[in-house]
Amino acid sequence: MTARVVLAYSGGLDTTIAIPYLAKMTGGEVVAVSLDLGQGGEDMESVRQRALDSGAVESIVVDAKEEFARDYCMPTIQSNGLYMGEYPLVSAISRPLIVKHLVEAAREHGGTHVSHGCTGKGNDQVRFEVSFMNTAPDLEIIAPARDYAWTRDKAIAFAEENDIPIEQSKSSPFSIDQNVFGRAVETGFLEDLWNPPTKDLYAYTEDPGIGNAPDEVIISFEGGIPVAIDGRKVTPLEAIEELNRRAGAQGVGRLDMVEDRLVGIKSREVYEAPGAMTLITAHKALEDVTLEREQARYKRLVDARWSEEVYDGLWHSPLKNSLDAFIRDTQTHVTGDIRMVLHAGKATVNGRRSGHSLYDYNLATYDSGDTFDQSLAKGFVQLHGLSSKIANKRNREAQ
Length: 399
Prior knowledge:
The chain starts with a strand and ends with a helix. It is 41% helix and 20% strand. It contains 14 helices and 14 strands.
């Protein structure tokens, strides 16, 4: 049986070279699959044609922007998904969707293998392959960049020797991954932790110091999902896109962090995620108003664990599925409006309102009309501290 390899094709250096390389290694054919996830930049038809020019027998482009925003970005917002409290899972949430469409293409086009362009140092090899293992274990996996130890110089030389159409050159050292939820940049001079990012590194955000006038925005949520901006109804994709523009113009969502990769090394990453960070900030603020205290405390733990599962490539794991169920239940009353000011690199909440609010003005006020019975507080304090009081008495007497 002739091998037919279905390749996750980005149009970049590694996956472009992978097409003739995989054909040579397997003696078979390569089907390239590219997803439009709202990354912008190059026209997807150009990407499709490059795959064909490089030897692919089929080149498929899937418009998955709406699906990505609805089924992957929205759960991330509901989960306040931030790995290590910072990274909004820009790349991590896209991998299971890419795998989904690669498997569909393999079924439709008689695929026997699936392939990706990830290296052995990163997280994405895990995200791709574990998703394949969970959804289509019959398909054999090939990872040429990892398994055959490609270096960037070798890849460029191979492309030049074989007249493979690539746009990258030795003068562009960065590794960039982007979609509508954000942009990730690594390698190059960023590998020296003392080097600051340069202005030309950014594409989704303006310099927060340029002095644009503040932009006030009202984001409306229903069940933890953004449904309107300034009173105008939006789809999940439209919400992200509009806030990418508006928050990006204010320099919101720039991150420069050293993160703990799944493979055990630390990596310096620069991210831009203006829409994602604005929406997560607004969502957190609305949860502060609508979630009961103990539920909110526990959800913060669940959010962190959910982010770790997704970062680690375990989108389909039993634990992640269980965490999903808990998070969905918490979103029942996360409905209302958050007002924010976008300015100078920050998204600052300055207004909250909800018909499901647990904030009671009459209990919170210190002015006349206060309905909080302060006479109950003395006994509460005594009982609340009783166990620690007894333990500390014992410890003093034992000295």
